[in-house]
Write a structure and sequence with these properties.
Helix content: 25-40%
Largest sheet: 6 strands, antiparallel
Number of helices: 5
Structural class: alpha+beta
Order of helices and strands: EEHHEEEEEEEEHHH
Length: about 210
């Protein structure tokens, strides 16, 4: 659970291990479509909030086949070094509109020393050193965990499972999405991560 890193850490998932969350995509259709249309090799995409005056203790995700990207959306006291991420011996502050990319298998921690919520958009990307075969194998493992029928000995059950996985991977039809997302969604992310009615799925890793 994301809360395992600290009470101040919460997420709202758009893409989880290759599967789109239709309900949350409807909350942020423009952002989701921009990510999808960009073609970046993302396997997970989610908003992440961090409460004021909280921290996340040093930890490793023990996973080096993905890299993690942080796009800073709404950083309190921007440029005043109040919100920081440390990876190994390197510490940097989040800056609005800037991106950080790092390997979460390295010990890392985070802190928000401000009196306001901090918001970022997180993406987990396949490591560029992976071959296509390796990426397909890892994606199959993700899919089989969610849909065990993929490894069934019964051809009919396996076929149905494959159809289900294809649906999970399909981006929701933009024509069916309500354009309710306001411009400047980063500021309105508080609603999406707090009071708005969306699935607040917790990521297993920071």
């Amino acid at each position: 659970e994301a809360s395992g890193y600290g009470e101040g850490w919460r997420t709202l998932v758009l893409l989880d291990k290759g599967s789109w969350d239709k309900e949350n995509v409807n909350l942020f259709p423009k952002t989701a479509k921009a990510v999808h249309d960009s073609g970046i090799p993302a396997t997970e995409v989610f908003f992440a909030s961090m409460k004021p005056n909280t921290d996340i203790k040093p930890h490793s995700d023990f996973t080096n086949f993905v890299l993690t990207s942080h796009l800073a959306l709404d950083i309190p006291c921007n440029g005043q070094n109040k919100c920081r991420l440390s990876v190994g011996d390197d510490t940097r502050q989040w800056m609005n509109g800037e991106v950080m990319l790092f390997d979460t298998s390295i010990m890392h921690d985070a802190i928000n020393e401000s009196d306001e919520m901090r918001y970022i958009l997180m993406l987990r990307l396949w490591h560029p050193d992976l071959t296509d075969v390796e990426k397909k194998a890892l994606q199959f493992l993700y899919d089989a965990i969610q849909v065990p029928g993929l490894i069934s000995q019964d051809p009919g059950e396996r076929f149905m499972a494959e159809q289900m996985v294809n649906m999970m991977h399909t981006f929701p039809n933009p024509k069916l999405l309500e354009e309710t997302e306001p411009s400047g969604f980063a500021i309105d992310a508080e609603k999406g991560l707090g009071s708005r009615k969306g699935k607040k799925k917790n990521s297993k890793r920071k």
